[in-house]
Each structure stands twice: as structure tokens, then as C-alpha cells.
Design a protein that fits this description.
The chain has one domain. 75% of the residues lie in helices and 0% in strands. It has 4 helices and no strands. The longest helix is centred in the first third of the chain and has 31 residues. It is elongated and about 55 Å long.
């Protein structure tokens, strides 16, 4: 609901906090993905097995694309402030990146196969985040 200033910020600022956090986290995860890509190309390429390098690159690819999705979720929040589905979509995308990419990074760097148990939960979080983003956009403006 717009305020007197027309900013679209809800009373108490709850909507704007989520919008900003998704923009900031999406940008930070994107920057981190670029840094990890450089690190893997220049420092890790000669030290990892082909399978581990493939896992690391998979983690990077998912982090890059879903960080952009998180950023877009933040942008969508400026158009659809206060959407619970949109907020959930953002948090699920963040959790998905941390669980999916994070577990693959940890698996490769630590060698402990137990980290792979978390990867499917990250994948499911990413899927649910994208589905909720679709729901938020498809149902925008209804019931207002």
C-alpha cells in the first residue's frame, strides 16, 4: 500500500527491507561467483580431479543464475511490495543457493562426501523459489 510519499513502502517498512536484502544478497552472491570462477580457473584447475572441477563449475553456474534470480526478486518487490509469495520466493532462492552450491563447494574443497546430502534440498528450494516467484507475479493485484 503506498504511503503519502508514494514510495510503495508499507507501514513499518517491512516490504522495503525484503526488497533491499534480496537486491544486496543477489549482487553479493553474483560478485562472489565471479571471484570463485577466477579462483577455480587460476588456482584450482590444476589441483582438482576432473569430477571435482565439474562439481565446482556446476556450483558456480547455479550460483550465478540464481543470484540473478534473487536480484530480480528484489526488483519485483519494488513493483509488488508486501507480497508474501515474493518474500518466500526470495528466501527460498537464497536457501537454495546456499544449500545447493554451498554443499558442492564444501564437498569439493573438503573431500567429505556427506556434504552431498544437502544438495537435493538446495535444488528443491530453488525449484520452489522459482515457482513462488511465478505465483507472486501471476496473482499480483488480485484481491486489492
Amino acid at each position: 500500500m503506498p504511503t503519502a510519499s508514494g514510495s510503495g513502502q508499507q507501514a513499518g517498512g517491512a516490504g522495503i527491507v525484503s526488497e533491499r536484502i534480496f537486491l544486496v544478497l543477489g549482487a553479493l552472491l553474483s560478485a562472489l561467483a565471479v571471484a570463485f570462477a577466477a579462483w577455480s580457473a587460476h588456482a584450482l584447475a590444476g589441483t582438482l580431479s576432473a569430477d571435482d572441477l565439474r562439481r565446482f563449475e556446476t556450483a558456480l553456474r547455479y550460483q550465478q543464475w540464481h543470484a540473478l534470480g534473487l536480484f530480480l526478486t528484489g526488483l519485483a518487490g519494488t513493483v509488488l511490495p508486501g507480497s508474501p509469495a515474493l518474500r518466500w520466493a526470495g528466501w527460498l532462492l537464497l536457501a537454495g543457493v546456499l544449500l545447493f552450491s554451498g554443499s558442492l563447494y564444501l564437498l569439493v574443497l573438503s573431500g567429505w562426501a556427506g556434504w552431498a546430502r544437502f544438495t537435493p534440498f538446495g535444488g528443491m528450494s530453488l525449484i520452489c523459489g522459482w515457482l513462488l516467484l511465478a505465483v507472486a507475479v501471476a496473482t499480483a493485484g488480485r484481491g486489492r
